[in-house]
Amino acid sequence: MHDIKTLLESYKSAVFQKDVEALLALFDENVRVFDMWAWSYDGLPAWREMVTGWLGSLGTNRDVVTFDDILIKESGDLAVASAFARFAAVSEKGEELRFLQNRLTWVLQKKEGVWKIIHEHTSGPVEGETLKVRLQR
Using an 8 Å Cβ cutoff, are 109 and 118 in contact? Predict the structure, then answer.
């Protein structure tokens, strides 16, 4: 469980540093991502394109990621982690400009002693009457 908590910290750091390679290193080459903003990304090349666009779009701003209500279940070389993720855009001066939250689930597999994300799923609840996704808890 400690290794997976470290992976969460590595994710937060890579996003803040806008380090595409460090972020992608957390994912398996055959990762499948069900993203809140697209149906899916299959494989690391497709995920790389999205991550590069996301982090590159921040300009001089950065995203600060925090996780709440983290649940981790391990069984052998497989694990599942879920959390509520908060992504806050901050200016160069450290001022929070805006934020959104979503639900995050990772399926992880230990390969050669290292946990890799083999599946990521992000979502937000949909309001029944408006069909709008809620981006804040």
Answer: yes
Rounded to whole angstroms, the Cα distance separating 61 from 59 reads 5
Do residues 121 and 105 touch, judged by C-beta distance below 8 A? yes
* Residue 2 DSSP class: H
Long-range CB pairs of 8-13, under 8 A, 24+ apart, other chains included: 8/67, 8/70, 8/81, 8/83, 11/65, 12/64, 12/65, 12/66, 12/67
Residue ranges in the chain modelled with pLDDT below 50: none
Neighbouring-strand partners of residue 94:
none
- CA dihedral (63, 66, 71, 75) positive or negative: positive
**For position 1, what pLDDT does the model report?**
61
How many Å apart are CA 53 and CA 55, to the nearest integer?
6
